[in-house]
Amino acid sequence: MAVIRMPENFLWGGAVAANQFEGGWKEDGKGPSIADMCTSGSPEHPKLITRTIRSDCLYPSHEASDFYHRYEEDIALMGEMGFKVFRLSINWTRIFPTGMEKEPNEKGLEFYDRVFACCRQHGIEPLVTISHYEMPYALVEKYNGWHSREVIDLFLNYCKVLFERYKDDVKYWLTFNEINAGTNHVLGAMISLGTVQGYEGAGIQAPSDLTVRYQALHHQFVASAKAVIYAHENYPQFRMGNMICFLTRYPFTCDPEDVLACQAEMRRLNWFCSDVMCRGEYPFYAKRFFEEKGIVIKQEQGDTEILKKGTVDFYTHSFYQTNCITTHSGAETSAGNMGGGAKNPYLESSEWGWQIDAKGLRYALNEIYERYHMPVMVVENGLGARDTVELDGSIHDLYRINYLRRHIEEMKEALHDGVDLIGYTPWGCIDLVSASTGEMSKRYGFVYVDKNDDGTGTLNRIRKDSFYWYQKVIRTNGEDLS
């Protein structure tokens, strides 16, 4: 049996998002983002979004894990693990507090100067997401978020500032995090005043209107393509990527109706956005879908050419779980990122009901690479679980180690299949606030952050058993997964 080895230059690391990790929400001129207006929650009591900051609510992003003040300690921990790459996002409102300023906030730029310098000291390559669910709240109020085309130029101005400032610090860029969240008709990726429905990707206040939703998505497509074109023309050293929440779906039965329904879900959830960003045009199946849903998108002259020219250089995605699709009633349901489905009887589930399917990652990687033939990175993956700090301060998270081991084993199989897999950044490498619920107790990290769901705690960092395990994995380039 052939020994499967990871490429020598494989990018091992971890991932976070500014709005879930950074904190410092009002410091040094930062303005409020969508995330800053979101309260804490739980599976039983969903997050809310408020027009003003209320004294009777907890807003987790305001302090989060306090990376803003502890970045040196955190990056040193990543360096100790041996990270080759650190996926982080830049807080848009730290650079442009309302998104509409003509000049950037210098103190915000200086913060990321320090972060990237610290990464450089530890030999870590930054992988930067430009927009990760932290759109300026002022753009929600004035423009209804990405529904208005005016936001494209504001975003491009933001990108130009980042590119010029960090041209010597950052090589890998992702334009929008999980841009396909907007195609989920059940939870969506938008906000509605009063209730947060899923993730806060587009900042529109009428998420149930599909034309509004897909119009916003079109504007994000154009904005991403324009940013890619500008980067390619002015900074040829940059590598520009997309980011998709990959939601593997299986037919629940061999009934052809289930197979067709599953195909439709895979197209809508997984392929629609990446077809535009990787191939440069709306897919053939979009026309019928828009007609049947009554969706009418307004495109301006030149949009077709922009999308065709502004395709990305590499593909990235998150992968947490899989679900089944059925047209039959009575199937047991399961939870999941951006929605659930029929429960797969062959899989186990996490405490939050997300089904664990490492082989589904191998399947996804093969499907992605077969479709696009470009380098692929898994930039989010991990197990949300409750961790217990023992009396001696240790944290024994064998459940997390087992989860990650199984997924790395399947990544090796995908490499052996021929997939050009270039990196892996497990989610929440240091504990952060859950995006879906606003909880701190749903932990993903190799490093424990002493903070509770009610906002109390010392914020001290504690290495978990998985910290030392991942350190060994990186040191051996994936050879030793024991």
From TrEMBL:
One of its GO terms (molecular function) is beta-glucosidase activity. InterPro entries: GH, GH_1_N_CS, Glyco_hydro_1. Keywords: Glycosidase, Hydrolase. It comes from the Bacteria. GO terms for cellular component: cytosol. It holds the Pfam family Glyco_hydro_1. One of its GO terms (biological process) is carbohydrate catabolic process. Belongs to the glycosyl hydrolase 1 family. This is 6-phospho-beta-glucosidase. It comes from Hungatella effluvii.
